[in-house]
Structure formats: structure tokens, C-alpha cells
Amino acid sequence: MVDSELTFKDSNECLLVIMPSVVIRLLAHRQLYWNSKEAAGVLIGERRGPHLVIQDISEPGEGDIRSRFSVDRQGPHHQIAVDKAFAQSSGTLQYLGEWHTHPEDQPSPSAKDLSSWRRHLVDSEQMLLVIVGREEIWAAKKIADTIVPLNKI
Ligand SMILES: [Zn+2]
């Protein structure tokens, strides 16, 4: 994978852009070794009309409970990162969704991921879901109860 920005789109030509600095940070958490633990955090960025730009993330930290196949994002630093970005940008940078890693090359959501997103990620706006695999990054939008995978371009 390259260290440049990543762009995805949906069937309506709406874009998702992940800024290069975020791509580098996401790739650093890939589960490349047998003992690598799952990592997770929140996605922070901008809604530009129908397009979404991920500018920042939170990363694993104190309070998170991590194993190879699960992660419980309990640390208070995730919400603090969202609040800080929102305040410093006068509301431009917002919570856009969640990311986590999978120990597989081409990641896809597990049944547990889908049910947890349906239960916990409830918003009137479209929310983003990102899974960082060993070779690929999977991204989707959650629109009401529907999860729509995005195509990398
Ligand atoms: Zn998962």
C-alpha cells in the first residue's frame, strides 16, 4: 500500500478521502504478526457537501481492552480527541465514524461488527466504517440501518 491519500466513492459519485497523514497512522496498526492485537479508534473529519474527508483519528491507548480478535474502545482519550478537534476547528472537524483492524489481508466486516454498528452507531447523518486489513483498507457508509461498502478509486 502507498503512503498517499486514499479515495473511495459510492454509486452516487460521493467521495470519501482519507488524508495521507491518516493513512500512515492507520497502516501503522496493521496486524502483521501472529501476536498483533486488534486496534481501534474513531474517525474525525469534515463533511463537504456529500463528500467526506477524514483528517484525524484516535488511536489505541490507556483503558482500551485489546486481543487478537477483539477490541473494546473504552479509553476516554477517543472522546477527548473528538471534542478537541471540534473545538479547535470551530466545529468543522467532527466525529465521522469508527475504524479497527483485522488480521486478514482483504478485510470484511464480521457478523459481530455488523450487529455492533447497527446497535451503537446511530446517527441521522451518514457514518463511516473503516477496517484496516494487512493488504487492503475496507470502507463503508452506514446510512440509517444499511451498510454500503465503498469502492476504492
Ligand atoms: Zn471487525
Describe the overall structure.
With about 150 residues, the chain is α+β, with helices and mostly antiparallel strands. The protein has one domain: Cytidine Deaminase, domain 2 (3-Layer(aba) Sandwich), CATH 3.40.140. Helix content is about 20%, strand content about 35%. It contains three helices and eleven strands, in the order E-E-H-E-E-E-E-H-E-H-E-E-E-E. It has helices at about 20-25, 75-90, 110-120; strands at about 5-10, 15-20, 40-50, 50-55, 65, 70, 95-100, 125-130, 135-145, 145-150, 150. The strands form two sheets. It has a nine-stranded mixed beta sheet. It has a two-stranded antiparallel sheet with strand order 5-6. Strand 1 and strand 2 (about 15-20) form a beta hairpin. The longest helix is centred in the middle third of the chain and has 12 residues, at about 75-90. It starts with 5 loop residues before the first strand and ends with a strand.
How would you describe this structure in keywords?
153 residues, alpha+beta, Cytidine Deaminase, domain 2, nine-stranded mixed sheet, two-stranded antiparallel sheet, 11 strands, globular, binds zinc ion
